[in-house]
Protein: Pantothenate synthetase
Organism: Streptomyces endophytica
Amino acid sequence: MTLLHTAAALRDLPRRSGARAVVMTMGALHEGHATLVRAARRRAGAQGQVVVTVFVNPLQFGAGEDLDRYPRTLEADVELALAAGADAVFAPSVDEVYPGGEPQVRITAGPMGTRLEGASRPGHFDGVLTVVAKLLHLTAPDLAFFGQKDAQQLAVITRMAADLNFPVEIIGVPTVREDDGLALSSRNRYLSAPERRTALTLSAALFAARDRLTAEEALRARAACTAHAAQDRSAALAALGEDRAAADAHAVAYAAAVPRHAPSVARAAARAVLEDAARLDPPLVLDYLALVDPSDFTEISDAYVGEAILAVAAKVGTTRLIDNLRLTFGAESPASGAASGYRDDAATGHQEAPAPAPAARERSAPATAAPPTPPPGPLGATR
Ligand SMILES: Nc1ncnc2c1ncn2[C@@H]1O[C@H](COP(=O)(O)OP(=O)(O)OP(=O)(O)O)[C@@H](O)[C@H]1O
Ligand SMILES: CC(C)(CO)[C@@H](O)C(=O)[O-]
Ligand code: BAL
């Protein structure tokens, strides 16, 4: 295992015959990061090379955020990276990454980067993309792995790589969770025990939405089946018994009376959990709950069919946490998760097999970057 601190040393790192994969982190590594490194190791293979970067990037922190207190644990990080299969750790100083001080030329994340996280943390994604672009140049990988826990980050990075022709495959890895559902995050270290209990309501809200959506879709599926059987209603009643027939009638009446509104149903279920969480001690202070189209992170309507991302951000005490879950809407599709299994980065088409890990894995497919949609503009709608 090689620990490198300078761009020059990284340049001198001999390439191996197989693919080079990079896992970029801000350190304070945990099982989520280890999962990324293991995924990188699997893809790169024995002949390949896995480089982990550890850099707390000042450019992506706003004034008043936690740049100064962000945990720095390099020695333990190197051990964890090695155990997970990394060949090298690149841990540069701020001066090494920004030798000319604050860069005057930066990468801008565009409209997608102004929504949700971008709205709450103005300039955040420009800072992320600028350092990711620099780290891609410095590490020159064939593959780069990012977590779906940071769904919008994965989406803007994927979009940058596509829009700016970065010669790298961006690969998303499903969110790793504690057994009780909490998404692993370096910032979880800030939480006291009571704060952690409150923080659990983030994932609880997402799972409530998924469960409510499953029930809604099941009701409508039942109504659809019952309607088909209506031609031979007396035989159906005999076969089903009265309770079942009454339930079917209820389902049919519901489906007929209430137009499709599964996105609203899912949103409301999550919001109810978060509203209760606002009354806990310590309280959850919601930043946003949004159900968005993965291709641009705009809010979806009730007519939406396909996969969407339910994303949440909130503060508990002074700690800001985010989480998200992928939900599928539409007549044919089950709600999500267990039925559809883990999914990976739609833009790369690459599917990561869910690897066993000590922490529980995502119970449903979370956010991934979507294939770029053509923006309107001077290059025309057909671009
Ligand atoms: N629970 C997780 N599951 C999968 N990937 C994760 C998880 N947590 C972080 N990652 C990924 O690890 C990479 C490095 O993230 P980072 O170092 O910021 O860790 P983090 O735990 O997200 O930290 P923070 O608490 O500051 O958000 C990112 O691609 C991120 O999405
Ligand atoms: C991608 C990244 C390493 C850029 O600083 C950071 O945003 C992170 O750790 O998710
Ligand atoms: N994991 C995202 C990095 C950040 O919050 O700044």
